[in-house]
Amino acid sequence: MGLDEKFASVRTSFYNKVGELFEKMAHGFGYPENPGMPTISDTLADASWVDSVPKRITFFPPDQRPETWFEMIFGPLPRVEPLPRYIYETKEEGFYNFYIENYNNIFFLPDRISEFIQIKLNICLDISVLEILREVLFIGLVFYSQMVIIRIALFWFIYINPYTFPWSYLTTAVDWTEDVLQGIVPSIFGVNITGSIFLGALGAIADSLNHLVFTMPFLPGEAERTKLLINNEMKDVLVFHYLPALWYKYPIPNDIREFWYFERPDILEYMKVAYSDLNLQLLPDLVIRQSQLLTHLYN
Prior knowledge:
Helices cover 45% and strands 11% of the residues. It is of the alpha+beta class. A four-stranded antiparallel β-sheet has the order 1-2-6-5. Strands 3-4 form a two-stranded parallel ribbon.
């Protein structure tokens, strides 16, 4: 009989006793009749859809799917798993429409922050900078979590002094979290669990980056909830279409207007016809200045 089998009954008894303890504590708070705290409706417009859509499942650490010999030997690099945006074009809705599958655990930047990024930082159609920043932050969190894991493992090697070179660099980078959390997180049976709590928090933050959706050139509040047939299955989606609100509230970015004028005149023509009543500035600044200069010379 193996050692695990000898202690199986003790382990099962311990689990049962802990479960009974928590159940007794829960009864003091009205369990199981008490449904918990009431939820607050808060969404893009209305949060009544939250309970009717599925939860997006991702994994942290990410799934290990090596694609090269290097990754097979040393392991694949951590990757963000962002929610894909499906871009489409129609004659009625225009050229910059997209939709995303709707889940109850995705989230967006606040409208004010999204507006600041698009107007002040001029990040509108090309969101590669935001994607890179998210990737860097994700990899940084994963790397730091590995440092925390190594630091926790050092506790079990009593012949290693973590405050000597080269381990001192690791302790300097990680031990400050224990100093902050030690007064907040209690020990369990004399075991310090601050490292495990902090590691779980890092994982939750890193995994949440998978569910952050960038909606440029639209604001998150412009999402329209509907259903589409995807792979022979009706799915709940959020659609961003027609004219972005910021293109009506502010001038359309000049680089976009230059792209329309010099490379995609079909989009420029569509915008002139579809939104002729809005008095939008559709020509690039260079063309407008040249036109004004010619008018001034002739006059």
